[in-house]
Amino acid sequence: MPAANPVFDVTLFILFLIIVTGAAVLAGRYLAAVFSGSLTWAPFSRIEHALFRLVGTSPEQEESWQGYARDLLIFNALGFLILFLILLLQGILPLNPQQVPGFSLIDALNIAVSFVTNTNWQVYSGEASANYFTQVLGLTVQNFLSAATGICVAIAVMRGHTRKMTDRIGNFWVDMTRAVLYVLLPLACIAALILLSQGVIQNFDPSLKTTGYGGTGSQTIAMGPVASQEAIKELGTNGGGFFNANSAHPYENPTSFSNLFEIFLILLIPAALPFTFGIISGQKRQGWALYAVMMMLFVASLGTMYASELSGNPSRALQDVPGVSMEGKEVRFGLSGTALFSTSTTATACGAVNAMHDSLTPLGGLVPMFLILLGEVVFGGVGSGFATMIAFVIVAVFIAGLMIGRTPEYLAKKVEIFEMKMALIAILIPGILVLVFVGIGVVIEGGLLGIFNPGPHGLSEIVYAFASMANNNGSAFAGLNAALPFYTLSGAVVMVIGRYVPAIAMLALAGTMARKKTIPPGPGTLPTASPSFVLWLIAVILIIGALTFFPLFAMGPIAEHFALAGGL
Amino acid sequence: MTWQRPLRTAILLFCILFFITGIVYPLFVTCVAELAFPSQAHGSLVRNGSGAVMGSELIGLPFTGPHYFEGRPSSTPGSPYNATRSGGSNLGPSNPALLVKVKERIRHLETLGISGPWPGDLVTSSGSGLDPHLTIDAALLQVPVVAHARGMDEDAVMALVYQNAVPDPLSQGHPYVNVFALNRALDEHGVP
Description:
With about 575 residues, chain A is an all-alpha fold. Chain A is about 65% helix and about 0% strand. In chain A, β3 and β4 form a beta hairpin.
């Protein structure tokens, strides 16, 4: 019986990725115009100038990397504080028709960190324990601001690599304002309307009690202002669902079209950033080269996920249930819509889900885990993934330079010891966090108690949890009881370090790169836009990403696959 | 490096952006929703003749056979299709509990007189626990049982299934029906 139509699905994938690429090229140009300040439309720029004067800054006042990082940290700390207070006090705040009480101290800490760092790891069930005030004024606001923070880092890194003999990499306040007002806000408004047309809800009604039908008995349906949050949740690669079931919930993602549209939103800005980089650096081929790396890794991952889910659960005990394994999946998305969503949400730092990743087949579940552990460089988060990709480029250039006996250069600038240190910090910190905390999680009782699925899958749950938090993804093998104190507290630490240490390292790298002179390309210069460099970069990413975690993959999903297929 | 000046800028800018993204933006979306998509914005609700809300077009209901088509199993906490606590079972592919649940479900369907091979969606729970849909295959499998229970012609019931297939151009290879809509059509068509 046909549960999926591979020919149609592959055609759909190809068309979809062509559309994404086309949109990304256009969005990339737009972003370049916004952040170079060349987007000037008189009424807007007057308002903008008034706004900057009011807050006490101006686009001309650029900062060194230290100043940029300081401003970013202050702004994020403030956002954390406000969100933390909202979460604690939501019981006495308005817009609370269900009389939801405030969060406990450690839950509030975890959630506030989670949303400020663009992780959106959720220890709570949205419809049950967050009221409308929290969802709208707490979480939606941070969905905008944390995404804009990521864009700022990416843009500052781009400036660092393309300027010369200056220590200035931009003005954080100006970049933040423009990222929100010119990029995220207009796109979110349009996206929210398209989602509404598909059936995503937007109201402040209390939960609704129905009469039921045909002997089903009454049903109570949770309501809320979903569309406004859903749009920015995908666009900002935040991923924190209004409802517990996230984008699997029919009110968040009602149709197969809304599903493709949400995937499009997730990929749009991350996929646009390489093109922005190409324009800002004046070498569009550099942007295309990075995009090619991302696309090749994406297609390979998507293919693996699709094939694994298509062949279904390898268990022999389920032979009379042939075809696609539907546990945790929704009928309306089909296999193509499910595989595309799961791959996109973990290739980027989004973390929204339209199927329960915990219930994917072993190798299907390996794909999201693998993509997250690569550092989400495949398209990346809004901003943060691009910065990590640049760190990989620096490392790739360095290794290649050593191999051919030349001074490593990128975009006509020498890569030296300090840059290497910063690039390695950006790449290795999330990985170290994962290895250390998984190590702790599997030996202490507080960690093991959280496991829901037995056997190798239990290890996968813990690995996925820390991978997701350290790389600010936010999706989960959600069987894991993330509400245990071990996970909430260590998670908060992991999310903060995983977000800010790489970001500051990349800003430092940008700062020192900006200071350097450019050197004219000579015959010994390594061309970084060539097909061979694209392949080389993929190899470096895979060697670092895959080898660091291969033992965990082997003991988790791969062991589970063979155990099931072998009938153990 | 000074901290006071950036702090002041941060507070002011935060207030402005908080106002725009936390108040203006959601209000704008809500207003447009009320004007342009009032039915969708309030949950695509389905009302009976007297105006009472029976359910939502988008949210599944826990129908039980043989008089009605059964939807997918649901793993929501408390009761199936609990629309205040969405979520999946999160059972991993190798979890013995998954096998137990699938076998239980198959036994239930068999007592209704339905037999395999089983379409995956009919015997596994969805990600949201609220999936309103069922594949055509899974609905067709129930046709003889439903038709028999209602004393209807099998062909007529089968025709209803096909008529209620969701017109979704993206569903090539996996056509599906809305179970709530199908069951309403069933009641409209003949005596229960």
